[in-house]
Amino acid sequence: MTRILILRPEPAAGRTAEKAAALGLEVRRHPLFAPQPVDWSPPTPDRFDALLLTSANGVRLAGPDLERYRALPAYAVGQATARVLEAAGFSTVIAGTSDGSEIAARIAADGHRRVLHLAGTTVAPMETGAVDVMRIAVYSMATLPPDPALIADATPGTVLLVHSPRAGERLAERIEATDRAALYIVAISPSALAACGVGWASGQAAALPDDDEMLALAARLCE
C-alpha distances in angstroms, 150 versus 24, 147, 159, 183, 222? Predict the structure, then answer.
């Protein structure tokens, strides 16, 4: 059976592992990062027309001050983040289907101009167009020490799931170019795939930035 390596942080890695196991896939978890909250000063909600979250970690780690913005229409980069926002009590949540640039365009099309973006300390490039975005970091991703078990588990034929460009960069650092020819990459986006570098047996990016889309690609590689 082909092995799947999940590199995303916990607790998201555990949810992906459960879905992969339900598909009959052999799974190993090797998070490259661990999310942690950072101190932030919440601006007053009346300064904004809308709220933007591009990661579920922003919802989980923003703390109690997130409640200040429940009256704003909330936008999420994907369905997973939207579900976490809804669980946090936001009643009006609009989910994107691609990346930050796509959801920013949707925000502009809906007539909003002043947007609060609660994000991590590092953010993928995003075209904001006519939208005036105030970005505030509410969490960071701490890089975990290299894990020798990652290399040991990356046996020939293994599929590696890459959920962010930063994860792609770390993976490229930890697996030598000479060891990539028998390993397969499934990435959440074209930018995440590009960050992995070259030399892999194959590399595919999901059509939508969604866990289920990635697992569907991985399952086909395992057939």
Answer: 21, 6, 12, 13, 19
